[in-house]
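hey so u asked for the seq, here:
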Amino acid sequence: MGSTVLSVRIDGELLDRLRRHAAIRGMSVQDYVVRTLIRDDFDERFKSAVEETEKFYGVDEYGVDEYGVK
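ran it, structure tokens below
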């Protein structure tokens, strides 16, 4: 998979915070932002997968199936 350039205009205060967060982890701001986006994307895909699994198996929003089993 190749890479593409994404240009983003952000507030100076946000950039300062990103620099601090990246520095704590020994990363560049670019690497920190990309890693954060990847993690967020994974979280969303995981949540969707869990919701689809719950629909498939009939689990409600409380984690209880139609037989009352958690």
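The longest helix spans residues 29-57. DSSP finds two helices and no strands in the chain.
lmk if thats what u needed
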